[in-house]
Write a structure and sequence with these properties.
It contains two helices and nine strands, in the order αβαββββββββ. By secondary structure, the chain is of the alpha+beta class. The radius of gyration is 15 Å and the shape is globular.
Length: about 140
């Protein structure tokens, strides 16, 4: 969750400093049942090229055992994998909501940009260059960034 806030703040600050307008979401929006199929029981991975900024596993399917699990460092005793919230999909609105409890709730549209995914809020890219792995059944690392 904190990574989301830092990433969003950095994105907004970079835009303000350069004086450039924020980019619009590109690619094809994933809609309806295809959004559920894309996200259920998969890992969303976002790297900054050095380490993982986002490694969140979508346990189960939207509305059923829908825990959002931050992989962190897997079985590492200092930074272990842990549930961080819930995820749900509104197929009618073609949105995914991440609810981190007291950490806030965030609603995104997801856009496929040639196999790289963009998570947008109100038409503004919040997370770009994410990949979605077809991991089924258990949270596992995204691999090497």
């Amino acid at each position: 969750m904190m990574k989301h806030i830092i990433f969003t703040g950095t994105l907004l600050l970079a835009s303000a400093v350069t004086g450039e307008a924020m980019a619009v979401c590109s690619g094809t929006q994933v809609t309806g049942p295809a959004l559920t199929t894309l996200l259920q029981s998969t890992m969303v991975c976002k790297s900054n090229g050095v380490d993982w900024e986002w490694q969140e596993y979508h346990s189960g399917s939207s509305g059923q055992a829908n825990n959002l699990i931050d992989y962190k460092k897997g079985a590492d005793p200092i930074d272990p994998t842990a549930p961080v919230g819930k995820w749900t999909i509104d197929e009618g609105a073609s949105t995914v909501t991440y609810d981190y409890g007291t950490g806030g709730s965030y609603v995104y549209t997801v856009h496929d940009n040639a196999g790289s995914y963009i998570f947008c809020t109100a038409g503004t890219p919040i997370v770009t260059g994410a990949t979605i792995s077809g991991v089924v059944g258990a949270a596992t690392s995204c691999g090497t960034p």
